[in-house]
Design brief:
Elements: H1 2-27, E1 33-37, E2 43-44, E3 50-54, E4 64-69, E5 77-79, E6 88-93, E7 100-109, E8 115-124
Parallel strand pairs: 2-8
Antiparallel strand pairs: 1-3, 3-6, 4-7, 5-6, 7-8
Amino acid sequence: MMIKTLTRHATTVVGGTALLLLAATQANAHAKLLGVVPAANSAVASPKMIQAHFNEAIEVKLSSLKLSMSDGMAIPVMSMNDSKDPSTLSIMPNTTLKPGSYTATWSIVSNDGHKETGSFKFTVK
């Protein structure tokens, strides 16, 4: 009888601990930036598309990718997000980019509701 009671208590403790660990893991599972196009700090011809790729799906309608010149002036872009790839933000500059330094700034909302921001720079030759 005593062994059954101890076994039940041990099972409850182990099960509870496993649930807490699972919850903690999921709470820290936010979208992370995997890569960008053009590559960060690269020198390229005027890109037709600028992208930020994340390790998991994001709330694309609540997320954005913006482009600015080194002086902070915003560059008009068109959103080109693909509903078949909810882990990537894509924009297309409305005109050919002139030579100079540019910053792409992203702001995302993970599927778990967590917000993240960041940026990357590239140069147009």
